[in-house]
């Protein structure tokens, strides 16, 4: 995708992008987000071809590979793709591609995933449509993870004007479900309920469990799927 079709140019931060995941806060968010995504994934022994749209440095591609999927990662940024390739992630390949016009034949993948990608593309609905086209029918799955517009932490980040959050389009669970439902039966879950205070991070597993049990709408991360 041309840089003009992205809300933020991630190329300049390719070398430092993964550093956040090494922090205590980053590790906490990452663990809960991955747990939420894993609950939505199909069995890779019967459907293992996965397209990772907006793969960045391959952080989520590595996770998908660990779950047993054969991953093709695509991203707008050549710098991000270079970092992903340097990691030599097992069962994963990477290429620069336009998420608004994916270069794959219809039905090539069993799963098409986009994690914190829709927030930074110019036309999320076009990207979802492209993901749907690349996913097999019947039985394929489109999976999307986004930053929740209802979460206080995301609203504060955006209001603070910190890049890349200042350029992001946030989605509420209802908004994400509405986009996905145009292509089939959609399912969404609000997850990753983490205390704002770093001193309370040890409580994150408890607060997240409470948020999910009561199906609260304001978790920091929303996962949505549509079965084709």
Mean pLDDT, to the nearest integer, reads 95
Give a quick account of the main beta sheet: strands, pairing sense, barrel closure. Answer: 7 strands, mixed
Tell me roughly what share of residues is in helical segments: 25-40%
pLDDT < 50 runs, ≥5 residues: none
Q: Kindly identify the CATH topology.
A: Rossmann fold
What portion of the residues fall into strands of 2 or more residues? 15-25%
Order of helices and strands: HEHEHEEHEHHEHE
Compute the CA-based radius of gyration: 16 Å
How many separate helices?
7
Largest sheet strand order: 3-2-1-4-5-7-6
| Total DSSP E strands | 7
Strand-pairing-aware structural class:
alpha/beta
C-alpha geometry: globular
The tally of structural domains comes to 1
What is the CATH homologous superfamily assignment?
Answer: Vaccinia Virus protein VP39
What would you say about this model in short?
It contains 7 helices and 7 strands; from the N terminus they run αβαβαββαβααβαβ. Helices cover 31% and strands 18% of the residues.
């Amino acid at each position: 995708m041309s840089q003009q079709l992205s809300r933020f140019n991630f190329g300049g931060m390719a070398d430092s992008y993964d550093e956040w995941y090494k922090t205590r806060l980053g590790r906490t968010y990452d663990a809960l987000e991955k747990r939420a995504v894993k609950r939505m994934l199909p069995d890779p022994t019967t459907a293992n071809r996965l397209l990772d749209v907006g793969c960045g440095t391959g952080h989520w591609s590595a996770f998908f590979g660990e779950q047993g999927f054969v991953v093709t990662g695509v991203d707008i940024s050549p710098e991000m793709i270079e970092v992903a390739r340097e990691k030599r992630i097992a069962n994963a390949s990477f290429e620069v591609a336009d998420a608004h016009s994916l270069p794959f034949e219809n039905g090539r993948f069993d799963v098409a995933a986009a994690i914190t990608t829709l927030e930074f593309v110019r036309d999320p609905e076009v990207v979802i449509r492209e993901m749907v086209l690349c996913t097999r029918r019947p039985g394929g799955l489109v999976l999307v993870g986004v930053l929740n517009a209802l979460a206080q932490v995301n609203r504060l980040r955006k209001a603070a004007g910190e890049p890349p959050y200042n350029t992001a389009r946030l989605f509420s669970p209802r908004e994400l479900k509405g986009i996905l439902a145009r292509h089939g039966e959609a399912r969404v879950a609000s997850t990753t309920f983490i205390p704002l205070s770093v001193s309370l991070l040890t409580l994150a597993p408890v607060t997240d469990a409470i948020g999910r049990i009561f199906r609260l709408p304001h978790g920091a991360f929303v996962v949505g799927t549509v079965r084709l």
